[in-house]
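Regression check, nicotinamide-adenine-dinucleotide case 352:
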Amino acid sequence: MVSEFTYNANPARIVFGRGVSANVAAEISGLGCSRALVLSTPFQAADAKKLAGVLGSHAVGVFSNAAMHTPVGVTQEAMVAYETSGADCVVSLGGGSTIGLGKAIAYRNDAPQIVIATTYAGSEVTPILGQTENGLKTTIRSAKVLPEVVIYDPELTVGLPVGMSVTSGLNAMAHAVEAVYAENRNPVTSLMAIEGVRALRESLPAIVKRPDDIEARSEALYGAWLCGAVLGTVGMALHHKICHTLGGTFDLPHADTHAIMLPHSAAYNAPVTAKEMAPLAELFGGSIGGGLWDFAKSLNAPLALRDLQVNESDLDRAADIATQNPYWNPRPIEHQAIRELLQRAFEGRRPE
Ligand code: NAD
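Current build output:
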């Protein structure tokens, strides 16, 4: 029997395929806009400039100072650039950092957003904005920040370094793993989550072997879209809480933290979510925690928190914060078990 459910889908236009980023001008016009401010991080500034050149009169400026965790000071600079350039929309070219900046602008002035996603983090399909001010990260959920158009062009992901492709892909998988056991899961998000993990399970090893394998890049981006879409639709649990704690309190790199923690948080929840996680466990040889860890190891992903400059003496504090005001989780949050989980992740040991 199908259990009772409620499904709130996020409206967005998704344009997927090799070479589709050539159609950005048409997407700008399709939104009734004509003057885009192109956004990027400093690292992708040259790509943003090139895109603005291709857009010609459809681009009125480039702002390339996007930074991780969307600092409010950077958003204020970008707002000035938006207003002085006379822009009527933003084109965000990049991963979660650039997309976060576009969302922060839209949150303030309702600017329509076209996103060209170049990592697997999934922010482009969520109505969630995380921003930081005075060292504090706050999260806002608002329909205003959901991008109107998302362009997925696998050709633009070929340059994503292999290490980052792996951690970003595992970050995407983490959304899907938590989606299958989410409190407000529904049959559609579960289908999307399982298919998203399958696509990344198949494509990431191929990308590690040959980073310019366009078929694998295409499959990974497809998986990332599905995983991002479920992140935007259902609630996340223990894994995301731990990663937010570690990321926010100890300023750890986002994707690496997800990659290290995922096998451990999945193993923690496995005993009480066997039915929901069965299709995922099957993809990883039968054991979700151990299987994910073996998979991450085979891709040379980071496995130990100590390699991210976490001090062992910080783990007690991390366990305290991660267990205070916990998100809903299928297994009760047990302080001692979470502390042990953090210890295993710190040492890079395979979950039991
Ligand atoms: P990122 O956007 O910070 O990108 C990392 C680096 O890789 C940047 O320098 C970027 O310019 C570069 N890069 C991106 N794509 C590239 C490509 N194809 N080729 C070469 N270089 C490329 O990394 P991320 O992991 O995508 O995003 C992390 C941020 O996104 C965090 O702040 C996180 O909190 C946020 N996030 C938000 C949501 C949400 O729903 N709000 C979801 C996921 C992540």
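Comparison notes: The first strand starts at residue 13 and ends at 16. The chain is about 50% helix and 10% strand. No diff flagged against the previous build.
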